[in-house]
Amino acid sequence: xxxxxxxxxxxxxxxxHNDNGNIIxxxxxxxxxxDIQRIYYLYDVPMGAERGGHxxxxxxxxxxxxxxxxTFILDDGINKKEVFLNHPNKALHIKPGIWREMKDxxxxxxxxxxxxxxxxxxxxxxxxEKFLDYRKKWK
Length: 139
Known about the structure:
5-stranded antiparallel sheet; mainly beta; single chain
C-alpha cells in the first residue's frame, strides 16, 4: 500500500496522572498499532544538526519527544509537511514509504523511536532520487 503524508498522524498516548509524577505505558497491539520490534533514541544532537534523510519500505514508527522538542519534515514525493513534537504524550505515527528529516532539536532533547521491525539495512531508502523512483512505481 502506498501511504501519503496525511496517513501519518499525531497519536495521543494514555497518561496515568499521579501527584508523584505521570506514567505512560505502551503495549503491543493495545495502544500501539503494531508489535514493537526495536526501540532506540537520539540524544545530544548538536544545535543546528539535522537527522533522518531516508524512508523505509516496510517499517512503521512511533516517534516521541521524550524530552525537549524537534521538528519532523514528512515527504511523500508530492507533498511535504512539518510536524513539531514537544510533549511526551504525543507520538508521530510514520507509515512506510514516507521520507523523513529531523531538525530544530532543542538542547537536551530526547527523540524516542518505537519501530515495527528490527534493524534491516535493506528496508532503508537512503537516496532521495531512489525514493522518488520507488513512489512513481506505485502510481
